[in-house]
Design a protein that fits this description.
The protein has six helices and two strands, in the order H-E-E-H-H-H-H-H. The chain is mostly helical and 151 residues long. The longest helix has 27 residues.
Length: 151
């Protein structure tokens, strides 16, 4: 008799989780950094790219554009997991960095059941599903609000 584990991890990443994590790293991480820098350090990184001055009693020189590179390692990991879910060769993960091709990963269904990269990823949580399915509306409302605020 084989006993299955109730919780298994998989290196594969399903569509909903992929969209969820990409939205978090490409939209919410930068917003969070802007808020942290402005509230904690008093630096508005939306207006300045290079900062030289006093932060919490210490002289600091920062190139604030470097913080945008925080997203890249996360994006590589998530894209690799998504390509594994599709059962594609891992080398295609780098090809998926081409902007239009990347959107294939949002919509292309993964392999059902286990594949050579591991077990099928668990179903996404209800919170992830709600977040992903309301994301287009959130983006449109944000864009309209931003255009309205600029006038």
């Amino acid at each position: 008799m084989v006993v299955k584990e109730s919780i298994k991890s998989s290196p594969r990443l399903g569509r909903v989780e992929y969209v969820y994590w990409n939205a978090l790293i490409w939209f919410f991480l930068p917003v969070m950094l802007i808020v942290i820098f402005e509230r904690v350090f008093g630096i508005n990184i939306a207006e300045v790219t290079r900062f030289s001055g006093d932060v919490i009693g210490r002289k600091v020189k920062l190139d604030l554009t470097a913080f945008w590179f925080l997203q890249i390692p996360f994006a590589i990991i998530f894209t690799d997991g998504r390509v594994q879910d599709l059962g594609w060769p891992k080398v295609l993960a780098f090809l998926m960095w081409v902007p239009i091709l990347n959107f294939l990963l949002f919509f292309w269904p993964g392999n059902k059941g286990d594949n050579k990269y591991g077990i099928q990823p668990p179903n996404p949580s209800l919170l992830q599903k709600i977040f992903v399915f309301t994301l287009p509306i959130t983006v449109i409302v944000t864009l309209v609000f931003s255009i309205f605020m600029l006038q």
